[in-house]
Amino acid sequence: AGTDPTKDDTDEDGYSDIKEIEVGSNPLDANSVPPAPPIDEPLFFYDFEGDEGDLVTDKGQRGNNADVTRAAQTELGIIGGAPEGSSPGTAIEFSDGLLNVPGVEMAEIVSGEGSYTMTAWLKPTNLGGDKFLFGQTSQGIHNGIRNGGFLHQAHWGADTNGSTNLNGYLEADEDGWIHAAWTYDGETDTGKIYLDGSLDWEGNKRAPNGSGNLIIGGRNGGGNGYYGLADDIAMWDMVLEPEAIEELALGASPIGANLPFQITSITYDLQSGEIELTWDSKPGRTYLLLYNTSLESWDADIDDSIESGGESTTFRFENPEGPEAKALFFKVIEN
Asked: Are residues 58 and 118 both part of a single domain?
């Protein structure tokens, strides 16, 4: 049987039959969906793994490190990052703290010629009042939480809530973490807010005013700051496709599309009981190798500082659960 001519989406998987035919997925199978588009290299990506002192290292390729400017209110290395994110080992905690990102100037966005996507995993501890995560050194963008617990996108006078109040939403959430994303298309003056990969608001949004560079943790130089944990913070100078944002909310790394830490080989030596893994990697980096037996929790590590072997890394280790283990699952994370 063919597609249903009375329906745009025969298998009701959220993708039109025309779209599925174009990209090669099956319009008759709800489990066959179009692949997410590749995610371009972000302006920066902070996973807070291995960061200490007054510097947060950009784990992407742009070198846009962030400076901790309120050390007493900004704590790095908090054990227990976003469990569904790409780097669950550690997070950052803001208590009206602040990061300055001097390498990310906002002039092109302010002029109306630029666009952006800003994303983060968040575990807020205070939903009252204004709790902004992304801002500028002078006025302009202030995206975060506002008006009693809504995700909020504001360009200094162009202010909009998302549709979901996080107070009730988080009560029903198992771990207290959400994935938030804000996009702005400078060509069409369109803003969007996403909550856990789903569109929470879309509408007209003019370019921000103000000047200066990006800050993280507050607005307008550092006021009305965010309270809570954050992880996997990233920004792009373009609007990501909804499918890409959904992939991020499902745990994809913001830099994973360029060089995914995909395990390419698993070998088990029956004689020695040792396991050998090989994965795609980056020269000069170190990696955290996690495992579990049920895919429910990634809190057990085998080694937290594996030196890169270059474009590909191979690591051999003893079976952490012994020969009686029925199943083991592995995840590789860049430090």
From this structure: yes
Contact status, residue 110 vs residue 212, Cβ threshold 8 Å? no
Q: Tell me whether residue 311 is exposed, middle or buried, using C-beta atoms within 10 angstroms of its C-beta: 0 to 12, 13 to 18, 19 or more.
A: exposed
Give the Cα separation of 31 and 52 in Å (integer).
Answer: 43
Starting at the edge strand found earlier in the chain, the sheet holding 312-318 runs 263-269, 274-280, 312-318
Residues 215 and 304 in one domain: no
List per-residue pLDDT tens for the chain, 335 residues long. Answer: 567 777 778 888 766 777 667 656 788 887 776 665 556 889 999 999 999 999 999 998 899 999 999 999 999 999 999 999 988 999 999 999 999 999 999 999 999 999 999 999 999 999 999 999 999 999 999 999 999 999 999 999 889 999 999 999 999 998 999 999 999 999 999 999 999 999 999 999 999 999 999 999 999 999 999 999 999 999 999 999 998 999 899 888 898 643 345 788 999 998 899 999 998 877 777 888 989 887 667 778 899 999 988 878 999 999 998 888 888 888 888 77
Q: What is d(CA 288, CA 40) in angstroms, rounded to the nearest whole number?
A: 24
223 and 291: one domain? Answer: no
CB atoms within 10 A of CB 165: 15
Running DSSP on this structure, what letter comes out for residue 52?
A: B
Q: Reduce the DSSP state of residue 166 to 3 states and report it.
A: helix
- pTM for this prediction: 0.70
Where does a domain end: 249, 283, 304? 249
Q: Identify the CATH number of the domain in which residue 195 sits.
A: 2.60.120.200
**Half-sphere exposure for 323 (CA within 13 Å, toward CB):** 5
73 three-state secondary structure: helix
Strand partners, 280: 312
